[in-house]
What does this fold into?
Amino acid sequence: MSNSSILKSSIAKKYWMALTGLFLCTFLIGHLLGNLQLIFIDGEEGRRAFNEYAYFMTHNPAIKILSYLTYISILFHAVDGFILTVQNKKARPVNYAVNNPGPTSSTPARYMAVLGTLILVFIATHMANFWWKVKFSQEIPLHTYKIESKQEMNIPKGQSFYYTQVPSIQPIPKDTNTLEEKGTAIYYKNTNIKIADCYIDLHKVVMAFFGKSNPNGIFGVLFYVLSMLVLAFHLWHGFASAFQSLGVNHAKWTPIIKNLGKGFAIIVPLLFALIPILIYLNN
Amino acid sequence: MAAKTINITLKIWRQKNSKAKGELKSYALENVSTDSSFLEMLDQLNEELLTKKEEPVAFDHDCREGICGSCSLYINGRAHGPETGTTTCQLHMRKFKDGENIYIEPWRSAAFPIIKDLIVDRSAFDRIQQVGGFISVNTSGKTMEANAIPIPKSDADKAFEAAACIGCGACVATCKNGSAMLFVGAKVSQYALLPQGKVEAKQRVQNMVRQMDEEGFGNCSNTGACEIECPKGISLENIARMNREFLFSAITSDK
Ligand code: HEM
Ligand code: SF4
Ligand code: FES
It folds into this structure.
């Protein structure tokens, strides 16, 4: 009995909902801190910092495990949420002719499934915008940057370089006659001999996506900002709700958790929303 | 002091039996004393219907003093009407204005099928109680002195508060998911908090939750509407306690 009850019972489904939801909340913090580099570090330094971070996030084995956990959580949370919603609709097949739920519950609490579905649409779009491009598209520029030529190094002025990840390898002059880019690495042309890893210039892609120099940039900004508003409403109820689902309801702690949840629901989506807005204004 | 009277229009759900298709029917009712209770107002309507040889409106009631949990009306979009902390029988007509339209519907939940008009079948609650809402005490005549086991005052108070549930079903009626978590949470807590109830606690929570799910009640979205509409002030704390009890028992019990 317990074997199935831990997966199938109404309460167990809420445990899974809460655990995946809270895991996604911690994901949001990490994702936010990484992405704030886009607006808080300027110029070449910011570009480098962000691309290095993106490289780290896609190559570090521990991060890879975390990112798979995140994908699984999103899927599980969405599927579980869908099952719950279908069952809940079945449990109340006939609506009241007149219903006045306003005084008894908050609006976000009653629209979690709608809000969640909108978030899912956002996640799919967001991944198509950036993640898919990085993983599968060949169109992404590699991060090369110009080094001020110093006489002693005999480097011609204005020469482009690959900025490489391996410390022992110096910046490599970009010479398309002898080198070739495959994925995140540079090879000797027509060989399998890898010279170095080099960064995908995700920073540039992001700037081009949201910048006002892109005629569609404003639509991207609007969509992302509105999606963050949706996320804010989802978290407004969701954060504290998850603790209740996990059985945490305490005279002393619950008021603190509720306030923490509301703070989280405002601050995290607000900071996320600032990123496309500031990029739009500055690019 | 002469009692004030009001004229109202009632929109009442009429449904011949569980299979028939129901509909909202409109009734004009005049000279309703604001001192009368909501159920007395319905009595007044039924008397008028009877003199007109029409079928009276069927609704549940018994004690009419807020302790039995029989009365169950969804009034103007709220379980037990616009007040909080009261049952329908404790609601008075002074809460309504002259000329007001008052919508009266039965509890709506798949697990509470309509029997007739405003009466729903709440035996699903009884079946949940039957699988765990008790303690197995041998009544052989050698009953133990009740005060022999010391119980912390705060636990006793919480168990007592949970035991105040009258099984009216307002929590299910107001919940957008038709969820019975507040009722079951109260029943599980009432025993889980006391030493006599702890003996069977693990099995109790599993059995009651399973029965609740089988009856077709929805899941909890923690909207908190039940806690606000509950006439007995049963707190969400009881749902959290049930969730803890459930996890603990699922992990530690043999079955
Ligand atoms: C970063 C994204 C997300 C975060 C941080 C998040 C977080 C949460 C949290 C903390 C809860 C409360 C869990 C509980 O009540 O125990 C919740 C509930 C919910 N989430 Fe999400 N969520 C996210 C995305 C989604 C998505 C993509 C969907 C669906 C497609 C979704 C659907 C739902 C639903 C339906 C509920 C309510 C479940 C119920 O009423 O019982 N969420 N979410
Ligand atoms: S918990 Fe409250 S609303 Fe639900 S059945 Fe018990 S008394 Fe009625
Ligand atoms: S009739 Fe008994 S509680 Fe209302």
Summary: The longest strand of chain A covers residues 179-182. Residues 127 and 133 of chain A are 8 Å apart (CA to CA).
